[in-house]
Structure formats: structure tokens, C-alpha cells
Task: inverse folding
């Protein structure tokens, strides 16, 4: 999940707002379109460990979900949970802060002639680009979450973007990154538009997440047609060492 987040602002939590699928997108993805990539126990879910580090609770205020999550995760592991300020006492809180969620309201989606569809054979290059640019978590099987596209120059992958969380009616654009030597040429925007074209083609609406502190990225997304929907609280916690697993 994003790092470098601002301290939480509890006043931003609107308890009166009706629930929306994007209020808990990881849960909606793991129990919906990405069920085949999920491990689920009761009211908690996670992606398979080499796909994504995302975890989710059906309801972060339900103690049963936290118990289920402890049984799913490796003891001592630090994870990020969204939408909670009340962490059970046997879980250690490491940090907390906000990211932002933006939705497509006026994006010009269009095909990019330079974009190529990336596949499993491209994963080593994708991992190398991610290591150099740090757009967020990307693991060996993250590519299975959806379509990923890249731009090559002289045969070398220099930019990419793709699909991450997919929930009914919506698909997240993620892993937007450009090699430092090729920044300033609009590759990120062009790949976002290209990814968005594919998302809209199947009837979904694109959305994005970013660290609130990443003001440059947020300004870019807003300038091309994304609108801030909500600020999302991330709480970084350590799984209790005493977690007892039920038999599989």
C-alpha cells in the first residue's frame, strides 16, 4: 500500500454515507472478480501471497473479522488494513495515514499506438522497472490481476500501467511508472488513457489510488479527468504472534 501517508483525520470519516462498492474495494475484488486469486476465511480475505499483499475485512469494526484475518496471515507480518481506527488490542499498530481514491469523470480514453500488451515473459522486466520507480506493490503474479501495457524504447521496457483491483462495475488502474530517463514525455498519461480504453470497453469505469502525499501524481490524475472521491485510511498493523490456525 502507499507509504509516506499523512496522519489520519478522524473528522473525514462520514458514518452517515451509504455504503458503496468502492468504500471497501479490496473486499469486493477478493470476494468477486478476483475470487480465483483469493484466500478467504470467514470475514477476512487476502490475495495469494505472490499475487498481491492486499488483505481485506468485510467489516473492520467486527472483531470476528480480525480473528479470521489472524488465521489467514503469517504471525508477525506487517499488513495494511483500510477503513479502521479501532485495532484489537492483541494487534500492534505500526502506523496509519491516508491515501486518496480518484474516479474517472472526464478522462479521454484512447488507444496508444506504442503500447504493447505485457505477459508472463515480461515479468522480470516489469519487476525491474518497479524496483527502479517504486509505484507500489508489484509481485511475480500481479500480472494475473488484469491487463498490463508497456512502452519499449530500443527494446527496453521504459513505462507501464495496468489493472489491479477489479470490482463490479469498476477497475483500478495501477503500477503507473516511467523510467527516470524517459519522464516528461507523457508516457504515463498515454498508458493511463490506453488502459482506460480497455476498461471502458468492457463496461467498467476506471479508478485510481495514490498516497495523499504524492501531490504530483494526484495533480496529474486530476488534470486528465479523474476526480477525488474519498480519502482512504490505511492502518499498518502487525499480525499477532499467537495466532492459532484452524485446520484446513
Result:
Amino acid at each position: 500500500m502507499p507509504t509516506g501517508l499523512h496522519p489520519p483525520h478522524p473528522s473525514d470519516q462520514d458514518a452517515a454515507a451509504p455504503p458503496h462498492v468502492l468504500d471497501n474495494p479490496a473486499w469486493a475484488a477478493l470476494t468477486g472478480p478476483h475470487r480465483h486469486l483469493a484466500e478467504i476465511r470467514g470475514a477476512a480475505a487476502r490475495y495469494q501471497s505472490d499475487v498481491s499483499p492486499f488483505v481485506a475485512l468485510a467489516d473492520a469494526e467486527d472483531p470476528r473479522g480480525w480473528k479470521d484475518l489472524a488465521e489467514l496471515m503469517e504471525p508477525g507480518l506487517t499488513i495494511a488494513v483500510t477503513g479502521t481506527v479501532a485495532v484489537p488490542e492483541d494487534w500492534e499498530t505500526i502506523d496509519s495515514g491516508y491515501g486518496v481514491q480518484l474516479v474517472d469523470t472526464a478522462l479521454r480514453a484512447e488507444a496508444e499506438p506504442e503500447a504493447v500488451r505485457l505477459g508472463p515473459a515480461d515479468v522480470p522486466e516489469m519487476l525491474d522497472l518497479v524496483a527502479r520507480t517504486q509505484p507500489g506493490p508489484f509481485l511475480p503474479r500481479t500480472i494475473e490481476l488484469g491487463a498490463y501495457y508497456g512502452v519499449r524504447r530500443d527494446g527496453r521496457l521504459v513505462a507501464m500501467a495496468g489493472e489491479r483491483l477489479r470490482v463490479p462495475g469498476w477497475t483500478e488502474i495501477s503500477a503507473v511508472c516511467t523510467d527516470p530517463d524517459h519522464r516528461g514525455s507523457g508516457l504515463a498519461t498515454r498508458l493511463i488513457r490506453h488502459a482506460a480504453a480497455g476498461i471502458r470497453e468492457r463496461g467498467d469505469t476506471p479508478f485510481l489510488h495514490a498516497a495523499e502525499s504524492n501531490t504530483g501524481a494526484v495533480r496529474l490524475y486530476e488534470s486528465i479527468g479523474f476526480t477525488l472521491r474519498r480519502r482512504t485510511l490505511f492502518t499498518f498493523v502487525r499480525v499477532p504472534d499467537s495466532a492459532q490456525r484452524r485446520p484446513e
Remarks:
- The chain has a mean pLDDT of 91.
- DSSP finds five helices and eleven strands in the chain.
